[in-house]
Amino acid sequence: MDILGLSFDPKTVILISLSALLPIIGRYRRFTRWLRLELNLLYLVLPWTVIVFAFGQSPLDYGLGLGDWRRGLAFTLIVGGAVAVGGAWAARRPDLCAYYGRGAVGAGSILAESAGALLGWEFFFRGFLLFGLGQLYGADAIWLQAVPFALAHLGKPWLEALLAFPGAVISGYIAWTTGSFWYPFLIHGAQMSAVLWAARRDQR
Predict the structure, then answer these.
(1) Which band of pLDDT confidence, cut at 50, 70 and 90, is reported for residue 37?
(2) With 0-12 CB in 10 A as exposed, 13-18 as middle and 19+ as buried, what is 30?
(3) What is the spatial distance between Cα 145 and Cα 78, in angstroms, rounded to a whole number?
(4) How far is the C-alpha of 190 from the C-alpha of 38, rounded, in Å?
(5) pLDDT tens digit string along 72-99?
(6) Which residues contact 96 (CB under 8 A, 6 or more apart)?
(7) How distant, in Å, are the alpha carbons of 7, 17, 18, 21 from that of 4?
(8) What contacts 112, CB < 8 A, 6 or more positions away?
């Protein structure tokens, strides 16, 4: 791809451009009344479309399969348990309570809310970006995908924003070594569910 006399790799241009633009669009623009649906269209369906029609590949090449499920299960149980406990503890902070304290308190509702919020989000960063950049730059993609993920947390409670970068590196490592985005999704889901439960329990 030649632009203004310079030669660029087209996949790099697409991946980096979307990593910058989609989080901005997701935060500032609303096209429907259904936020979770909209975010999954943005972060899941659109990347799938790019993978199939622009890259000519299968979504399975981007971490959609189960990969090394034994390692993934171990990561999910150990890391997921740790971040769930940490999230429940951190959610007692006033800023996190204020940010996450409103909403349903039932276990089923919280799990559904977490899954709806994170499915596309995790695929975009730990699937589309990680494995797309990984095809070009190898394991360095773990660090590359962590940057837009961390920046997408600006405006959230400071502790959450601060931990977003190391959390993204750890999640990227798990996805890379297992070959699947599903395990970071489950881990992040455990953390978010614990935060919502703890923050809303204290608001009742």
Answers:
(1) confident
(2) exposed
(3) 23
(4) 22
(5) 999 999 999 999 999 999 998 889 988 8
(6) 90, 157, 159, 160, 195, 199
(7) 8, 17, 21, 22
(8) none
